[in-house]
């Protein structure tokens, strides 16, 4: 049996412009909190400080827990869409990559359909990606072995109601090498992920049913979907998954969940600041996802710029040991530029904010308007 991973390159293709959230498009795998303000041309990252006298194992563990730092360096089109990204491992210098670069190409024609959403406002750190249409795209990237270039292609088609709201979204994806790209243009798609939308009397999306439509020509019988921070598998045992959305009186999303066969898989709850109207806290619960063997309930706190400032892990049961470093609270402080994008992040990843930070990350951000 073959397995097509449809979220391979989706997780950080477009960061969210916080000044233009209505037009932003989320191509995230699990890091939908990452965002920027203004017309960013490029972002590069490095560690300018690593706590001395820590072992390589401790450093690697800390690096993996550096939740505030995006996993890649980026260059962007003026529209805010990602042009290229590279490098997964952050270094102590700004990296100048000449290989392992992934390049995006987009088809924006889908937006001529003026697909509507009833959300009055989009908020940072809220998982609303499924409520908005997506760009057709092609990713050109390096492939190990004899193939110099490989492509990951996704196309989206929509069935709309009379108010131009989405009823059904079909997502087609396939991967090819450069020499087979031309012949594939005339061939049938390999796989289709289908999302069926349901609305309440206020035209708010309350439910989305995920299912797959397989092409019998290909030996593929399952597909990955991503929801919140976790990958889930649609297959023979889980042929269908249901996403639910709940709203408050102001029309803001306050709860999102994913389930299958009446079994909860994951959920996230949002708490808004009473006066400043931003998400100040999210409560994430992972039952059956890739992280389910770890602490299942995580509480994240954010500042007014949408940046992560604290993570707490709640025990799964009374008396569960929480002394391991990976289960201790994490804290984050920032320095900002004139656009209110952070350029230095102080990370306290060992359970206390006292003393020196565990890591300090810096970002070099270049803007189109400078």
From TrEMBL:
Keywords: Signal
Signal peptide feature range: 1-18
Highest taxon in the source lineage: Bacteria
Protein name per Swiss-Prot or TrEMBL: DUF4595 domain-containing protein
């Amino acid at each position: 049996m073959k397995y097509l991973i449809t979220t391979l390159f989706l997780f950080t293709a477009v960061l969210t412009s916080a000044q233009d959230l209505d037009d932003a498009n989320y191509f995230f795998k699990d890091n939908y909190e990452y965002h920027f303000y203004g017309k960013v041309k490029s972002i590069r990252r490095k560690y300018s400080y690593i706590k001395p006298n820590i072992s390589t194992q401790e450093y690697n563990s800390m690096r993996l827990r550096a939740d505030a730092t995006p996993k890649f360096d980026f260059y962007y089109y003026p529209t805010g869409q990602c042009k290229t990204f590279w490098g997964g491992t952050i270094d102590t210098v700004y990296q100048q990559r000449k290989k392992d670069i992934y390049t995006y190409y987009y088809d924006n024609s889908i937006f001529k359909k003026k697909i509507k959403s009833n959300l009055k406002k989009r908020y940072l750190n809220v998982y609303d990606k499924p409520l908005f249409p997506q760009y057709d795209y092609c990713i050109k990237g390096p492939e190990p072995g004899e193939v110099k270039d490989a492509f990951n292609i996704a196309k989206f088609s929509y069935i709309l109601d009379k108010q131009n709201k989405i009823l059904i979204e079909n997502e087609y994806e396939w991967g090819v090498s450069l020499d087979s790209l031309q012949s594939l243009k005339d061939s049938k798609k390999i796989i289709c992920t289908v999302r069926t939308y349901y609305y309440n009397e206020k035209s708010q999306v309350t439910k989305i049913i995920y299912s797959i439509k397989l092409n019998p020509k290909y030996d593929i019988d399952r597909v990955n979907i991503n929801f919140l921070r976790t990958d889930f598998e649609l297959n023979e045992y889980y042929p269908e998954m249901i996403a639910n959305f709940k709203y408050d009186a102001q029309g803001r999303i306050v709860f999102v969940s994913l389930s299958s066969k009446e079994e909860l898989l994951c959920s996230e709850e949002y708490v808004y600041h009473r006066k400043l109207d931003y998400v100040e806290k999210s409560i994430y619960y992972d039952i059956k996802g890739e992280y389910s063997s770890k602490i299942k309930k995580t509480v994240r706190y954010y500042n007014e710029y949408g940046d992560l400032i604290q993570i707490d892990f709640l025990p799964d049961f009374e008396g569960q040991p929480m002394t391991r470093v990976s289960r201790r609270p994490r804290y984050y402080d920032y320095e900002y530029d004139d656009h209110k994008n952070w350029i230095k992040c102080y990370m306290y990843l060992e359970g206390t904010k006292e003393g020196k930070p565990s890591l300090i990350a810096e970002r070099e951000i270049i803007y189109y308007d400078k």
